[in-house]
Amino acid sequence: MRAARSEGRSTEHPSDRLVRGYAHGDADLSADQTWAVEAHLERCPGCRRRLAALAAEVPAVTSLLATVRTGLEPDLDRSAPAPRRRRRAAIWAAPVLGPWLAMVIGVSVVAVLLDRTADWTRTVPTVLLLAPALPLAGVAAAWSRGLDPAFELTAVTPRAGLPLLLRRTLTVLAVLLPVHLAAGLLTGVALAHWLLPSLALTATALALGSVIGVGRATAVLGALWTAAVLAPAVALDRAPLLQPERLPGWAAVLAVGVSVILARHRAYATPGAPR
Predict the structure, then answer these.
(1) How far is Cα 93 from Cα 90, in angstroms, rounded to an integer?
(2) How many CB atoms lie within 10 A of CB 35?
């Protein structure tokens, strides 16, 4: 017997009579038969094709489909899939990342100009004070609910989580580190003096972000940097945390941050995880 059984678990296909009756909305079909046909159609592409062919014979169905298609066509044309290059770019950069990176680069240029033209910086160059902390702004824009208007859509994609966050963070560093390298060369700031603190702050932001969210983590670290580094530099013209003898400490912070990221890598992929 080809008729679908009422429990909807049979591997048999519904008869042409049942499929035709379902397509025409036949009132003679019982509720059990209708439910059995629908349950079978959900898992049988062949029977769905049969239904489509039979439904095309029903004027009311074809008229309804034509009306719906006519109404949807303008929106479907406007919502065409983005080009492949643009989709790939979204994996590496958030939509709002461009303006933020431009702002950070502008601040870096101003820091270089101050170091080259002003004498108030004296002992502690402005580039050294700002370069380690500036990537935090880019990291916040790369993965923050409040700064990225497309965050809710991005966060539920299969590729979301730590891999996507790391890709976007690498994009931030790939743009900013060469800029700060050039700034260091122009102002005489040694590479290690700003690079280690910069990487350490970035890793700490990602590690802390798994607990309180990346946006909050970058805000907290920015406030701590202001209190522990910028304030003493402005008030006392010295920055104890940026002295060469502190570099092993920054390396240790970087190692701890990376270890925490690896240990909590699932935190970014779980529902309700802090963002």
Answers:
(1) 5
(2) 15
